[in-house]
Amino acid sequence: MASSGKMPLAIDAIEPTKRMLSFQGLAELAHREYQSGDFEAAERHCMQLWRQEPDNTGVLLLLSSIHFQCRRLDRSAHFSTLAIKQNPMLAEAYSNLGNVYKERGQLQEAIEHYRHALRLKPDFIDGYINLAAALVAAGDMEGAVQAYVSALQYNPDLYCVRSDLGNLLKALGRLEEAKVWKMLARSLRNT
């Protein structure tokens, strides 16, 4: 009996699905390893993913973050830059690059990258937190206060941001404001 040719087509249709599931499973594993601090395993799995999909911005961002955590700043910047080339609207990549600049002591470049990330994604909480830290390091305390307040406008339930804002206001001698923010932070922690 002659083959109709349909069987190979059915198998061909299954293969991309299996590849996608294995890619997704490996990506989830790499994220779990990263979150648990196993950066070596996370990097190994991300490199496998990157070889399969070199333009996948999620993989590029994770590789950037892994290398940053391992203090391989050049590699972190490299993967952030690749992510930006793939998607110039990717706020997280600019923020990651800002982290590299901040770590290198290039505060003005860091601040510019954080601000660019926030222009792209105004509700990017980590961008405000990173910007505030860079502004404090650069001596712009009022700018840092504004960055924290902006983050809280998007998510008023952030204990760490409220606490950091309270500490910053206290350092600036704005004790009454600091007390209010610290009190609000404590109430969040206790709920």
UniProtKB/TrEMBL annotation:
<dbReference type="Pfam" id="PF13414">
    <property type="entry name" value="TPR_11"/>
</dbReference>
<dbReference type="GO" id="GO:0006493">
    <property type="term" value="P:protein O-linked glycosylation"/>
</dbReference>
<dbReference type="InterPro" id="IPR037919">
    <property type="entry name" value="OGT"/>
</dbReference>
<dbReference type="InterPro" id="IPR019734">
    <property type="entry name" value="TPR_rpt"/>
</dbReference>
<dbReference type="GO" id="GO:0097363">
    <property type="term" value="F:protein O-acetylglucosaminyltransferase activity"/>
</dbReference>
<feature type="repeat" description="TPR">
    <location>
        <begin position="91"/>
        <end position="124"/>
    </location>
</feature>
<protein>
    <submittedName>
        <fullName>Uncharacterized protein</fullName>
    </submittedName>
</protein>
<dbReference type="InterPro" id="IPR011990">
    <property type="entry name" value="TPR-like_helical_dom_sf"/>
</dbReference>
<keyword id="KW-0802">TPR repeat</keyword>
<feature type="repeat" description="TPR">
    <location>
        <begin position="125"/>
        <end position="158"/>
    </location>
</feature>
